[in-house]
Amino acid sequence: MRISVCVTSSPAERPLKDLIHALRWSHRPPCEVVVSSRTCRLDLPETSFPVRQLVLGSGINHWQARNRAANAARGDLLIFLENGCLAHPELIDRYAEAARLAGGAFGGEVRTLPEGAARRGIDFSLFKRLAPADEGEGASPAMQRIGALEFSVGNFAISAADFLRIGGFPETEGGRRETDAAFARALWGAHLPLWRVSGATAWCEQWRRRPVRPVQVSEPGLLVAKDRPVRVPLVPSLTSKSSGRTAAPHRV
């Protein structure tokens, strides 16, 4: 099984460099990391796996950039990480095993680190002390079915075929919670189960996390954020898979 990690970068280099450094510790390296950027190519660390950077221009939003990264990915399984997430060395293994055992979308946890925790390098022992993670037991991950409102797009995996089938992320410019809910509803509408996977943990420094507003889902396609209804398309347009694969790969 080929596994691609998809990331959307910001102009700041450090979050993406930290993410790449953490992936270098993976027990099972990805077949590639696809980075979509709205500004410019960044100077990233050398890796044993290819890192491809797609520069898309400033007229594209975060969710469109994520869709373009997925569209260009070559993996059978796609892992999406928020920029700056530091993946546990077993994260890729856990998602790969979960995808072997079941279908659907697989979510891991994101633990919050105090600001500056990763400034001196990737130290998983330190991260575990500062923000203990659910690592599970044994080689196989513990998997638990979850509901739509428990699913988060900050750290999750899904097969490339299923991602394309549901149309990817809603491309309207919205908050994380709104997109979480809309994407989860699209998965449910396609009869794809949602799973929480133990051990598929990532850490993120506190200063990188944006505050979010509580969101309730009232009816299909309607999200309510602070009593303000927002219509969100559940099956957005997505560039065809074949067109996404024609982009020339970039090595850093």
Write out key terms for the chains shown:
disordered C terminus; 252 residues; 14 strands; 3-stranded mixed beta sheet; Spore Coat Polysaccharide Biosynthesis Protein SpsA, Chain A; alpha/beta
Describe this structure in words.
With 252 residues, the chain is α/β, with parallel strands linked by helices. It has a single domain, classed as Spore Coat Polysaccharide Biosynthesis Protein SpsA, Chain A (Alpha-Beta Complex). 26% of the residues lie in helices and 24% in strands. The chain has helices at 13-23, 62-72, 91-101, 124-130, 160-166, 176-189, 241-244, and strands at residues 3-8, 32-37, 51-55, 77-81, 86-87, 105-107, 110-113, 143-145, 155-159, 194-197, 202-205, 215-219, 222-225, 228-231. The strands form three sheets. An eight-stranded mixed beta sheet has the order 3-2-1-4-9-6-10-8. The protein has a three-stranded mixed beta sheet with strand order 5-11-7. It has a three-stranded antiparallel beta sheet with strand order 12-13-14, covered by helices on one side. The longest helix is centred in the C-terminal third of the chain and has 14 residues, at 176-189. It is globular. Residues 207-252 have low confidence and may be disordered.
